[in-house]
# Entry
Amino acid sequence: MREVAISIERLSKSFKRDSGDIKVLSELDLEIELGDFVAVMGPSGSGKSTLLHLIAAMDKLDAGTIRVLGQNPHLLSDAAAARWRNRHIGFIFQSFNLVQVLTALENVELPLKLTELSKKQRLDHAANALNLVGMGDRLHHLPRQLSGGQEQRIAIARAIVTDPDVILADEPTGNLDAASAEDCLTLLSECNRKLKKTIVMVTHDPKAANCARTVLHLEKGALLEQELLLAQ
# Structure
């Protein structure tokens, strides 16, 4: 039976600028199945990153409805939305967003500080996540001591450490060299296949998009087409 992870109906979002309101998304309808790996492509300004932030309730929508796993996070208070996001969403940023004064282990532990786990349990979970992404030998390294590819691995570990249902990745290979980008995409594919995570990835790279099962094309805030790829 088909299960829907993310359901979006008539979603609209604008940003205020000196020149007036700029419409980013316009009455967008979309359903993403549980366990799918979706790539969202489109030119700059098409609303790709905004869509991810709205799915994660990191930004406010203007109109429409978003349901993730049957719940509308935009109806929650800010504090409740943060708890919901920490439990159900793992977010991977293009710029890694690691805290430079914290070690790899401490960076990955951060999302767990919103849970009821003890310090030892948090560190054990963080170490396990780092082992999963091949960074078990870099637990106590600072971000500045690592390559860009290693930093992104830490960011992926941080995204999966709470065992979220959905992973949202915003241009995860954008700041990586070709070899590191391939490693990153392999890790995301493994999260999808082995860990059964639903993944939505924004990318401008056709090679990265080919790792997904479904490719969506956004332009000027509208969904143009959907392409189904063979399972990787």
Notes: Strands lie at 4-17, 20-33, 37-41, 63-68, 89-92, 166-170, 198-202, 214-219, 222-228. The chain has a mean pLDDT of 93.
